[in-house]
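In response to a reviewer's request, we include the raw inputs and outputs for one of the modeled complexes. The three entities were modeled together in a single run.
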Amino acid sequence: MKVEISRRRFLQGTVALSVASATSVGVTSVMANDEKKKNQKESLTKTIPTVCEMCVNKCAALASVKNGIVTKLDPNPYFPKSRSMLCARGVAGIHALYDPDRLKYPLIRTGERGDGKYKRATWDEAYEYIKDKLVKILDEEKDNRSCIGYCAGEGMAEHTFQVFMSDKFGSSNFVNHSSICLQTAISGYALTIGGYGQADLENAKYVIMAGANRAEAILTPDTMDLFKRTRGRGAKLVVVDPRYTNTAVHADTYLPIKPGTDLAFVLALTYVAISEKIYNRRYVAKNFSDFDKYEKHILESQYTPQWAEKITGIPAREIEKIARDFMANAPQAIYYQGRRSTWAKNDFQLRRAQAIFTALGGGIDLKGGIIFGKNLPLGGHSVNSPVYANAQPRIEKKEASIIGGSGSWIAWRNMIAEGRTPYPMRGLFAYKQNPMLSVPNTAKTKEMLTKLDLVVVIDTMPSDTAMYADVILPECTYLEREDPVKSFGGSEPAIVLRQKVIEPMYDTKPVNEIMRGLGQKLTKPLFEISKKYDEDLQEEIEDSSEEDIFDENGYDLAEPFMESQEKINEHSVVSVYGKDAWNTLRAKGVYYPHMEEYFKKIDNNTYECYPKDKRFYSVLKLEEEFDPEKFLHDTCVNMEDIAELKRSFKTPNGKIECYLGSLGKKGIDPMPVWRDEQYVNVPEGKFKLISGRHAQFTQNATQNNIMLLELMKENYVWINDKEALKKGINFGDEVEITSSVGKVRIKAYPTSRIVPCAVFFVHGFGAKSTGLTFGYRNGASDNEIIEDTIEPVFGSAVMHDTIVDVRRV
Amino acid sequence: MEKCLICGLEINKIPLFKLLFNKTMFVAYILILAGFFGIYEVIGERYFSVVANAHASGIDPTNPALIEAMKNAVFGHVGEVTREVPWTLFIVNYMYMIYTGSGIIFLVALAELLNIKVIAKTAAAFMTLGLAFVFAGLFTIATDLNILNMLWMFKDPNFGAGMWLMLPLYSIYIPFVLFEIYLLITNKKELVKKVSFAILVLSIVVDIVEFYIQAKLFSMNTSRHLWTEFPILTLYFIISAFVASLGVMGIFSALIYRNLPNYHELIEVIRKALLFFISVLALYEIIAYLYVDKEWAFLMLFGPFKYAFFGGYILLTMTIPFLLIFKESKNTLTIIASVCVAIGAYVGRYLFVYGGNANPMTNRFGVGFEKYDIYDISNSYNYVAPHMGEILIVIGSFGIMIFIYKFLDEVFDVSKVREH
Amino acid sequence: MNYAMALDYQNCINCKACEIACKEENGVQLGADKQRIWIGVVEGEVFGKPFTNFYPSQCNHCLDAPCVDVCPTNASHFSKGGIVKVDPHKCILCKGCMEACPYDARFVDDTMVAVDKCTFCDHRIEETGMTACQATCPTKVRMFGDLDDENSDLVKLLKARKFFFQKEKEKTLPKLFYLVPEDEAYAKQSISHSATIHTWESFKPLYDTVKARRSKQWKNA
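The model returned the following structure tokens for the whole complex.
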């Protein structure tokens, strides 16, 4: 996939000039500075509202299209959540569309797995290939649909893929980003205060951000709200982080902390609040259950600031001061929930402790605290899914206490790689996810992928994972497709629509159409397999006719995908809000009730989507009945998962849960406890590897984006300058970082802005796919050296407990 | 040799082959050849290297040349100059060549005015040499500019800009010098006698104007304090040019006039003048660095440029020559001093141009130098090493200088000693 | 009309959205050195505690612009509203303007073989009222507007806040107005002792005088 061109010089003049001319076309067509061009501009320019997909935030964007070319992406001010902004990645979305390395047509593997040799195929050939393999596999596995696993990255079309794989195809083996992302945080909050909620940073007076880095890991509207109010402008910000991040730059107080000790910090804060009785006693009396148990536990365990100082490295007096300031500002005080990954084994308990601490101040479900807001429901459609008698439950059910519907990536993968599965796992369908780079311990992911008989990857880019696929199906990018309409809850709820900006380039398709094609190809042959092995089905057919059962029980795999996405969306919106709402949504990209009346431009930088008194801050009081599913909202949350979790653990709603007895039965601490044995100590001369984000990249999805690479061309490892001096490491030196599972080479960035016991490098670099011209072997991938440890509750990947050695090479 | 006479000008009827193919010319050609390689390199970089803008990939995303260009832009290097150091070796060489050349012309005029016989006799050769240097300087700068748009110098002139003033300046200066040479080598003795004094005065005025415009060119760059705060930049340019010119004249004399009966007399004149002007220059430098912005002064005197400044400039231009020539001695010592000065003066020009850009403009808020990149260290000084193309063009400019001088000498016998 | 920009630089989080928006909007050449706009980062430490300042910046479109004075062919010129622009077709690449600029705001655009710089997005300001960098900014650092329009958002902001300039001593009368942070500690760490703090009243007369002198050179194209 590599095109060799020797470096310029005269002989390449002709080639070079063709670029220059292409370039100048680009310039003139856009500059449009004379009359003639102006006329042209009017006739050929279109502005189409759409929704960004460069990260999970889903900001509303306006795409300018000239002569069928997307020339610019601008923010769409109508969407309250994105606060009329588009970040670096959002603006660089054009280069996701025009990335030279995009997957352009279906590919079928011709070489060995991982060597990148593929041949171009038609869609039908690709479907045919998949069908042949699936028929063979399912025949051998006697119609156990779960022998084909599937994984997906977060995205608006993730659900479409899931409908196919789970509801239609019938596999139970689904893994997604949750367990390598914010599973513990979401669940910790859901089980403690009822929901993850949203921190109202527009009105909070005191915010503790521990580990969260909102300046660099941009989250809407938190980032936009917070940094207009820091340092003397309304919100006191305390940043607790092993690194002096760009968020810390804006903090009133920055406290460097040893990685993995946040729980001790929160428990000490709680100790101060409880022992000094400075918490919001009225709120606690009214809304807490089992507070007495918690109070007793905290006090008896002696979680004093002095105790925490030894563990965290944060001075005891700072902890006392923060606890007092926090409670003085409560209830407009938030211990920020945080997102990102699981850091240490105690992560679930950490999130619980955070939630309880915030609740001690009373900052739940009110302006300036953690709010739940309101959701705007969308019309649904049902899927008729067949039941396969031979489909087995997911393989890694017993690897952790609670394995939900989105699984545990590491546990799941390790079982396959190590050959410990209860039944053979034969295949994997991966949509928009790249486990080769995103799941800790790359070597094992590779082992897993090599063991499978069928790997199908649906993506826009030839990722490292795609290089292990038998069949690659090219999805079109977000600017070339309409995706399922999405509703965002919050204090200012709104519905947004991702519309197609231009027709799909090359031979690419949206997921809806891919599922349709695949479904049509697979329906008949797979039904034959079921008929052969599924005794229930055989009985049903005996009782009735084959055609009837086929129709009634939904064996037609393509059926939910037959309608165009536009039609499906229209139905979802019109059925609830009427035709006008749908027209507004299409024209403006955003819809919410009373939009025309509420929406106001205040100045060039400020738009008001909802008047202050119409926003939904305190919903629990407003609503007669509390229905958590109506309020929980987060892009990354699988609501069904959370609902299921809460059903299984029978947490009463509307109360702050200090003591989770039902979890105790599963061997999980019912209250947050600091356990020394869970803490990984850093030996002398070694470091703990921590990972994180910069504002210019979204995990590994943007590693080949030339515009973003221009801002930061590779990742560097942060190492404390004094430690670097000891090891003779200077800026830009290549160093080797070794852990128990692998080693990487990366350039060094010695800085005083990281604690001595840790090293950091940003996630998302170091791809080994030869298909990526710019990303290939650029920098280092953290997951090559992060150990595959899971935390005991959800089986989430522990990302910050790997001990590494650093040496200059 | 057979001659023909046009307007009192004796022209050698030298065969073309002999004119173009001789030892000196071969040296010139080799140097010019290096220069052409440099031009090839520079033009390749400027007009034919693959470059891309942000819109290019929307038009033809998979164009291999575009991909290469994008890769170069991000992971490699793109462009001839950086924003921090826009003026480079081209300007150094331009300054050296033009100032030294016009310094020679200026000095010869002064010598004639002071009635220094030995210079008067060799004036034509020195003036031609000076002119050859000026052409070499113009050659250098021509390769630095985008010649394709030069028409705009006529179509939309900005009369106040130092850069534009170069155009009328050299349009007048070069014919004027040619006329001076013409007067020197022509046989029309009567005419020469009549106009010589007026021409001399005029020529000195033109020389001063020239240096004034050169100084304006630099001192308009208000933010580069090394240039704007150098006291009386015009004077500095004249004095430093005289030093370089005398060095070049010394070397030239040794090459051309070593068999002349009054060779020693010639060298003596040069020695005395050199001694005088390096003393003035030394004094000037001391005073100047008391005035110049301390940030620049620090970089030059104690910072990264200190070795070039003291070891290159001060030692070669002032200390060594001074020790060699402060009293009358063998001609050889003066010649060695001349070589030192000629090299040292080049280092001086280099320091002046690169030094002007050395203090980064990125201390925009007065709280420290800024960096742009997340992974970078902020620069406390700017320096970009000259690239190969530039160096080759500089070498070529010496070839141009030799070629022009030799050509004129072969045709007009400018080096012939003339009695007035 | 006299276009200018105020920057509430305390908001900046160095996300670099503005840098990319500028490149995409204007089709600027690719390359880290080829920036019309940038975020300068100054890192320091006080008593062992680190601090970092982010300075989003671009061409100051100085009223008394030295880059216009030094240009031999008038390629570098004042356009409508006092926007300093370069006409690439007239540029002879003498790079004198790059030397004259106190802010390093200019670079050589190798696609045009000419000097390039910020244009205040003059092709879109009439339509949208703001530059691409302002529109896209997550924390809304910038406010573009007309200094002559007393009712513009810009003038309202400048009347309400104190401000300072970069390198005011160079006497180029820059038009990027940096708003003094409301937090004293932040102001102390990010503003030089030698910077003059202005109010709208204190600075307006000076600008009017110089505008009267220089605006004769402004082209209305």
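As requested, we also summarize the result in words. The longest helix of chain A spans residues 511-533. Residues 107-180+381-479+504-561 of chain A form a domain with the Rossmann fold fold (CATH 3.40.50.740).
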